[in-house]
Amino acid sequence: MRKKGIIVRKGMKIQKQISQKAYRSTDGFLRHYQQLVKDVVIPYQYTVLQDKAEGVEKSHVIQNFINAGKALAGQDVGDGFYGMVFQDSDLAKWLEAVAYILEQFPDAELEQTADELIDLVEKAQDSDGYLNTYFTIKDKEKRWTNLLEGHELYCSGHMMEAAVAYYETTGKDKLLRVMERNAEHIYKRFVTEKTPGYPGHPEVELALLKMYRACGNRHCLELAKHFIDVRGVDANYYEKEIAARDWVVWGNDATNYEYQQSGKPVREQKDATGHSVRAVYLYTGMADLASETDDEELLQACRNLWKSVVHRRMYVTGGIGSSVEGEAFTVDYDLPNDTAYAETCASIGLMFFASRMLENEVKREYADIMELAFYNTVLAGMQLDGKRFFYVNPLEVLPGTSGVIKTHRHTLPARPTWYACACCPPNVARLLASFGKYAYGENEDMVFCHMYAAGTVAFENGMEMECKTGYPYEYQVTYEIKHGGKGIAVRVPAYSKEFTLLKNGKEAKYEMRDGYVYLEEVQDGDVIVLKLDGTAHFVYTSSKVAANTGMTAIKRGPLVYCFEGVDNAEDVLSLRLKKDSKIEIRDFEAALLGGTEKITVEALRMQDAHDSEEEGLYMIKPPVEIPCTATAVPYYTWGNRGENQMRVWINYI
Amino acid sequence: MRKKGIIVRKGMKIQKQISQKAYRSTDGFLRHYQQLVKDVVIPYQYTVLQDKAEGVEKSHVIQNFINAGKALAGQDVGDGFYGMVFQDSDLAKWLEAVAYILEQFPDAELEQTADELIDLVEKAQDSDGYLNTYFTIKDKEKRWTNLLEGHELYCSGHMMEAAVAYYETTGKDKLLRVMERNAEHIYKRFVTEKTPGYPGHPEVELALLKMYRACGNRHCLELAKHFIDVRGVDANYYEKEIAARDWVVWGNDATNYEYQQSGKPVREQKDATGHSVRAVYLYTGMADLASETDDEELLQACRNLWKSVVHRRMYVTGGIGSSVEGEAFTVDYDLPNDTAYAETCASIGLMFFASRMLENEVKREYADIMELAFYNTVLAGMQLDGKRFFYVNPLEVLPGTSGVIKTHRHTLPARPTWYACACCPPNVARLLASFGKYAYGENEDMVFCHMYAAGTVAFENGMEMECKTGYPYEYQVTYEIKHGGKGIAVRVPAYSKEFTLLKNGKEAKYEMRDGYVYLEEVQDGDVIVLKLDGTAHFVYTSSKVAANTGMTAIKRGPLVYCFEGVDNAEDVLSLRLKKDSKIEIRDFEAALLGGTEKITVEALRMQDAHDSEEEGLYMIKPPVEIPCTATAVPYYTWGNRGENQMRVWINYI
Questions:
Q1: I need a labelling partner for B262 at 20 to 30 A (CA). Which of A291, A433, B99, B393 fits?
Q2: How far is it, in rounded angstroms, from Cα A383 to Cα A390?
Q3: Nearest CA-CA partner of B65 in B81, B42, B85, B47
């Protein structure tokens, strides 16, 4: 018999994410964000989902569930369905965020709201287990006829994730049962009845693996494996699907195999292609399945795809999917700064993928990238006040061009309040609320600290400890062991060439493997201190990346810095950095941008040297170099002080 | 009574283009190109127009005229119309090129071909003067109902230009009469009957002014003035037009006022906007009308638009219209190199505009830009063999990215043989064939040398001279006065800070005004020598242009140089130039790229300095600087040695 709310992990060999119950944030960087999610983001997004937020794009998602319930009850559906074909997922992601946040911040009223919404979801489920408001309201006959665009499996996946989370933190299993029935419905169709097809937008695979661990239902595992194994085997599946139906959502091109990662079986795929969120959600499911089933071949495919993403197609900010065309990966080294897409959701998905790779093999590269994506692109996705969001995260913004001209229409210079396609805002909320899962891991003998998050952790293996740190603004992390008896492994990031590990004030004896320091066994009362090198430094891009030749950026720990007009006389274009100059970290300012430190660096202001007006834009004389000080702030804080120029990469001399 | 073939210029005050009869190219750079137009381009394009070129996009333009003639004669139209709605203009531009080339290279067979084609054009003209094969074949009822997209006035304009040219060089006026009837047809509709509307694609304005000078028909002048004056006065005209019809060509957005330069009256327009070819064709007509009618207000508008184009929206290569979206201007300083559009036709149009501005005021800036556009973007538009053409002229090309990924689908790394929209190839041909008109000008008292073109010139004012020069590879220009008695004005380009002017071997006494040296009167046998500074030098972009910060390019005279992979170890991205290093011009190689000189310069090869593979694309160590020699070739020659990397702008240290 399973204990309610406890999720059993089978086949886990290396280490796994901790339970949401295990981590409580305390004072520090993360606590601030989790509190913001609780106090602002969740309530704000709820008003949006209820269509009560003023001046904000209508969501209608809750009404869609109500109307779907009416449709099933044979009642009038009122104003019917409104929104994107994947609108259901907005509620699912919000519910998932609520589930996580309730663990840390119990709130009877919020929980009741969630319970009531779950009742609506249950009522919107058909008797055969089918659940999707778009098709239930608009046309039941069209169910499952458009996997390419219909997002039914995507929406199911997100509701499964919400169900698992809500079960995990509240112990309530109503939504879990709803989604288990839904999973059985899908299993029957695609496995039992052998109906061909695979998800247009991967997501259900990773969700089914969560379901499997929560419900213990092997059909969920088999179904996840089925979708991963059949993907791309019949590369022409979507073309046949289109030929068999007389309707479309947008009319996606079924032959764009790269876009939907369907050109060949996933085990044979070596380059990250197509829609970047679809890609990393797929890879997450693949990595998860590989660890769950001990599938070395699948893991090797994941490693190849990881390298493709991280070593050849990723921005320094952990942003991925460089092109607005298809929200997609393009080719190696194509990383334009001003037209970058770098969707917030894609970097969240990259964190998922990294976290699942860590469950296959504990290597710091995965955690380094997970942290990089988090502290830069994911956090930049949200205004510091929690009420505005970026979908797109460019590395260069010029007011008057960005968000204005057609080629730059997607690179907005300021965060909007909401989007018609509102995938990113609730995705940020659920990620922030469940950060502990990504920061900490465990197995029977050992606990793992992948990222540094102040708070208490009560591991399932019995270890208990408190982490104290002002990271990412302080580079000392202290682990106070409350209940020991197991080992502890802590990542030392690649950026920190030097580090010190102390145990009870003395240099600790440790083993270093793949970027983690391992202490075999710690005892109650032990205090472990990791001192990292948080020196700010320049970073250079491989010359294969055309967009960044001759340029440098500044990093400190995981934080990428950027130069904004407001700190630099409204002109960052004419700045030049001097690669030998000293980078100074200014004092922490609690009132600045949610609490941050500016960085200053000696620089040159390049002044056009016109011979005559006739020269126009092109001058024979080199620009005059005027010494100045350039000021940078962390990338995640950009765009919080009005519209202004912003650049991450600056030319250097 | 007018003498056949002589075009009378009224109201000319400053100076005007010479007649096509006046200039004969002799040995030199231009002669080579004109010979190529005669020997290769015109015959090749004729096979294309006849649909006889293998592996080339079908044109069908001649057949369209045949079929239109049949339609008017009540006969079966066979295979009907094929091609773009503006397909007629391809034949018109070819005929115009033929007309020009026949002057220098008499060819009875070619002239007979042209005569026969003109017979076809005449047969395709309706009894009321209407001429357009698309509407005549497809649906006569739709005539004049879609000025926004229909290109009837555009096609008329190009055929008028051909008519004037053919009349000018052959004295034959059949096509001129056809087009005068066509002009009267248009005049009746838009002036006499006061039908609202103005051209979707400006062109007819500048053509009507040519017609006016060739025919002496004031209706042509009035009609040109009418179209210029009404443009944008009723900014909503196209919306009304759409509301009144039930068909579209592409469904262009009528409210995109900037695209069609129709948001406000042209005299009030200050920024160059929208489709760049439409824009410069319009401005050419405006400038021409301003000089013809002594309209200072219109001239001031032209000056404003000139500055907008040249000082804020032009590439160093004279390319304009930076965006593929609408083939258009965007905003000030938005000049991306890798996604540049910079259509060949737009730079040809910029030369037209410059030449007409010179007819308003002799200032070297106009001639400098005319020359810049010619020697770089216009010439780059054609393969050195005369058989392949670029529509788009990027300043950075990376095989595997350029022409491949969606955002770069237009920046092809190699010239195609032809285009479905084939505006550029015949446009290059007619420009090259009539180069003398742009190079030389005259008024009653003076001859003007705007550009340096070896050859003999017999001016209408009686002056005769021969120009000898190896320009743009030699920077000495000699004018041997065969028949004097008038003054001569020669431009000294802005790039040549120093120069020497000799008259019969001694320093000449001259007056310098607006960048031209004026010699009041020269006599038979005088030899004028202008020695320019052709030193190769670096050029820097204003820091307002984000794409070029930290970069430099190399120019020599009007020639912009570029770095290609084939000369630089297949890697131009890792090159860095040193701004203080010496630029060396290598010996002229007749066998290299149609005869050119390479430039070499001390440079650095930046080698990625990885700490470990984990770093991926982003490294903490600065790249290692390895001294090397970088080699550049003139931009107009790029892409003639296979697909490879190309960059104009290179980072400097």
A1: B393
A2: 8
A3: B81
* E strands, A78-177, in order: none
Query: What is the C-alpha separation between B189 and A491, in angstroms, rounded?
Result: 80
DSSP of B147-177? TTT--HHHHHHHHHHHHHHHHHHH---HHHH
Q: Tell me, what DSSP letter sits at residue B317?
A: T
B419: pLDDT strictly greater than 80: no
pLDDT tens-digit readout, A533-592: 999 999 999 999 999 999 999 999 999 999 999 999 999 999 999 999 999 999 999 999
Which residue in A has a C-alpha nearest to residue B579's C-alpha?
A: A622
Using the predicted structure, report yes or no on whether residue A365 has a pLDDT greater than 90.
Answer: yes
Domain boundaries, chain A: 441-532, 536-651
B252-276: b (≥16 Cβ within 10 Å) or e: bebebbbbbbbbebbbebebbbbbb
List the catalytic residues of B: 327, 423
Contact residues for A194 (Cβ-Cβ < 8 A; gap 6+): none
CB B25 within 8 A of CB B104: yes
CA B550 to chain centre: 30
Among candidates B323, B608, B615 on the partner chain, residue whose Cβ is nearest the Cβ of A405 = B323
A268 secondary structure, DSSP code = G
Nearest to B540 by CA among A611, A606, A619: A619
- Alpha-carbon dihedral sign for residues A605, A611, A615, A618: negative
Tokens 């600045």, located at residue: A592
The ipTM estimated for the assembled molecules is 0.93
Give the residue ranges of DSSP H helices in B326-447.
344-358, 364-373, 379-380, 424-433, 435-439
Q: Residues A585, A470: contact at Cβ < 8 Å?
A: no
**Alpha carbon distances (Å) from B60 to A422, B47, B65, B133, B162:** 49, 11, 9, 11, 19
Structure tokens at A3: 């204990």
For chain A, say whether B609 makes contact (Cβ under 8 Å): yes
Residue B577's beta-bridge partner residues?
Answer: B603, B652
- Helix/strand/coil for B503: strand
Residues B408-418 have pLDDT tens digits of 999 999 998 76
Return the DSSP state at A398: -
> What's the mean pLDDT in B416-443?
87
Q: Is A276 near chain B, with CB under 8 Å?
A: no
Right CATH for B441-532 from 2.60.40, 3.30.160, 2.40.10, 3.30.1890: 2.60.40
Question: Residue B11 pLDDT more than 50?
Answer: no
Mutate to test the interface with B, among A540, A563, A568, A648 (most CBs of B within 10 A): A540
Which amino acid, B177?
A: R
The model's pTM is 0.94
Angle of helix B276-293 relative to helix B204-215, nearest 10 degrees, comes to 30
Assigned token pair, A20: 């949401």
Q: Which residues of A112-132 are buried (b: 16+ CB within 10 A; e: fewer)?
A: ebbeebbebbbebbbeebbbb
Distance of CA B307 to the CA centre of its chain: 18
- Residue A55: per-residue pLDDT: 81
Q: Is the peptide bond before A472 cis (omega within 30 degrees of 0)?
A: yes
End-to-end CA distance of chain A: 67
Burial class (CB in 10 A: 0-12, 13-18, 19+), A10: exposed
Q: Which of residues 315-374 of A touch B (CB under 8 A)?
A: 316, 323-326, 330-336, 338-339, 364-365, 368
**Angstrom distances, CA of residue A507 to CA of A311, A503, B491:** 34, 6, 79
Q: What is the pLDDT of residue B418?
A: 67
